Backbone:
């Protein structure tokens, strides 16, 4: 699957998995017990000096195995011989035919710190909605983790993107700042979990106030601002972002110097709509008005009128709930 899409997320994140029809075990409401059964299997296995890694293939199929870092499984790994743990983890990741066994294998590798397993961890991490949390943690622990996480971040989506970008921020700013400021938000609403952290960690406010920022930075700044304006209950919001007035003002200024397009019009109008609904609190400025001035220019009106497909469900929603609601000139009937 990766060879078919070497530079993009796997279609459907790899679904369906080979064990898609299996019943998923559940250890109940006590989250403290999650991982205990898997750790017990590992302890018994590593206590037998004759046991081989292949003996564990399928051993976890009927056990509830958490997809996040787990203290019980990590402790079992640390109690055993390091070489055996690494060999067992590699075998389970490479040869398991169910997610639970592969997850335990990845957890064993996450307890180690050698760089030799980075390609293997990156590969299983491409199945990111399930394996993303452990893959991100495993790469974060290794020397060169920033570069490895950046490679993976460029090829995951959905929850996997949340896991990997959040792991990238503490270790990868020096190698990934340009990507974080231009490409980390892919438009999924889940970006709201990390958009504010990206803005703070990558110093968005210093990048966007430059005299001549590139179009990718300006466009992505709009996405970051939209995500933060709608991030209540998810992550850093515009109301709690100290640099919000500076970034919004700079974005409004730079937007006016860009070539008009329907994509830019829609992005900016959605941001104005969110600000109009109080998405940034009281900023003491009027960024909405400054952006409106740009969107009401004849060339910007023409861009959205020529390209917006009203047969598309989102375009129809946008027209009614954003364009017409805000009274933008492109959606106002002549004489209206």
Residues:
């Amino acid at each position: 699957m990766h060879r078919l899409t070497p530079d993009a997320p796997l279609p459907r994140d790899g679904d369906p998995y080979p064990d898609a029809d299996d019943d998923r075990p559940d250890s109940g409401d006590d989250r403290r017990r999650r991982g205990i059964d898997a750790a017990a299997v590992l302890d018994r296995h590593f206590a037998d000096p004759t046991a081989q890694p292949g003996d564990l293939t399928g051993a976890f199929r009927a056990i509830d195995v958490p997809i996040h870092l787990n203290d019980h499984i990590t402790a079992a790994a640390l109690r055993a011989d390091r070489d055996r743990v690494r060999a067992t983890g590699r075998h389970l990741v490479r040869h398991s035919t169910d997610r639970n066994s592969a997850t335990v294998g990845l957890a064993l590798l996450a307890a180690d710190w050698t760089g030799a397993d980075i390609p293997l961890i990156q590969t299983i991490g491409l199945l990111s909605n399930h394996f993303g949390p452990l893959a991100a943690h495993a790469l974060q622990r290794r020397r060169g983790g920033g570069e490895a996480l950046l490679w993976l971040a460029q090829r995951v989506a959905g929850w996997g993107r949340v896991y990997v970008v959040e792991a990238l921020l503490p270790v990868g700013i020096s190698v990934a700042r340009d990507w974080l400021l231009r490409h980390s938000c892919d438009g999924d609403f889940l970006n709201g979990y990390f958009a504010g952290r990206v803005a703070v960690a990558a110093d968005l406010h210093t990048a966007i106030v430059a005299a001549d920022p590139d179009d990718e930075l300006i466009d992505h700044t709009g996405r970051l601002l939209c995500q933060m304006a709608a991030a209540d209950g998810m992550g850093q919001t515009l109301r709690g972002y100290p640099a919000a007035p500076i970034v919004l003002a700079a974005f409004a200024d730079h937007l006016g110097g860009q070539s008009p397009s329907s994509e830019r019009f829609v992005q900016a109008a959605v941001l104005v709509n969110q600000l109009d609904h109080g998405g940034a609190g009281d900023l003491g400025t009027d960024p909405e008005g400054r952006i409106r001035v740009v969107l009401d220019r004849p060339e910007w009106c023409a861009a959205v009128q020529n390209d917006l497909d009203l047969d598309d469900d989102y375009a129809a929603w946008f027209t009614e709930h954003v364009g017409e609601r805000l009274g933008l000139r492109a959606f106002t009937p002549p004489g209206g």
Q: What stands out?
A: The radius of gyration is 24 Å. The longest helix spans residues 158-183. The chain has a mean pLDDT of 92. Residues 1-184 form one domain.
